[in-house]
# Entry
Amino acid sequence: MNTLFEPWSPDFVANPYPAYQGLRAGGRVHWFEPTRQWLVPHHADVSALLRDRRLGRTYLHRFTHEEFGRTPPPPEHEPFHTLNDNGLLDLEAPDHTRIRRLVTKAFTPRTVAALEPTVRRLAAGLVADLKREGGGDLLADVAEPLPVAVIAEMLGIPESDRYLLRPWSADICGMYELNPSEETAGKAVTASLEFSAYLRELIAERRRRPGDDLISALIAVYEEGEESEESGDGGLEGSGGTGAGGSSAVRLSEQEMISTCVLLLNAGHEATVNTTANGWWTLFRHPGQLAALRADHSLLPTAVEELMRYDTPLQLFERWVLDDIEIDGTRIPRGSELALLFGSANRDPQRFDRPEELDLSRKDNPHVTFGAGIHFCLGAPLARVELTTVFGELLREAPTLRMVGEPEWKPGYVIRGVHELRVEL
# Structure
């Protein structure tokens, strides 16, 4: 069955869904030798394993590379791993719990609601520019600039520097693909060094002149944690939180600050960019559903969820097996790696009615696009605001929007999207 899974094939990347049908029909778990991973294609298994504490995004909180039967990464890749391994996505408790508790303060319903006017203003400006030009590349002209600008504004990154962010992010995210090449690793290392150096300078500047931004808030946590260590009190969490372990529960190192900011940018816009472009490509191929949405904008909330289900931008999410597990009678030993197939899970007929059909009014829609468990996407509420806003703005201001030519898919499979989406009004 694993011959169906061809993540380096352009044809597979362009449309992996027929292969997923075959994988689901063939069983609950499949060994894939080229990446030495177990493929998991069913919704029930993916959903359960995302919450299973016998799995982890890392194993280094419990084992060395050697103890886990893994080869350490090459020393020349160290800058990437230092940056990546200190971010929320690749940490487990207790570090994950400590950092997520602090960063969650930036994504409360109140703070996300406060960002809505900014999102509306930015989306309106981008769509107005597209309209004035009579069309263009929906990906580069609208989908990319919006989430980058929102996250950059949250972090307090000056507007003049924001052009740097997307290329750094793209090069770093190349390492999340399956079996990345040495060229990809080299680009990721360079981007990691440059992005980290930039943020160190920005953090130093915010220490001198704090602002009303997330970096300034994280600096305050960092410094309060240092003070609480000296004084022995509970710092930020001790003043009303539930953090156990005294000051260690609130401290945030500078490297964790840098890694958190990079993760927020990468995760905070990669998914939104591709959901916007992939979503419009999906709508253009389903003219009846697009017409229904244009006629009734109240469908937007369910439409956004359905577009994320139908063609998720994150097709695969990896987890390490920390303790032996069993899936459908197959023993998966400690040291193994699972590849949870989000794109397949989101079209599993055992969980979704008519899963291959696009239904923008779908109510029962427990897609796994944002993950689940402790690694559920922190920015999901903000992503939903961005997506609903930009789709709504395009529906209102560009009601005759249409696609020009077929898009070409980028070679990446894990984070899957098109090179461009040419449109005209």
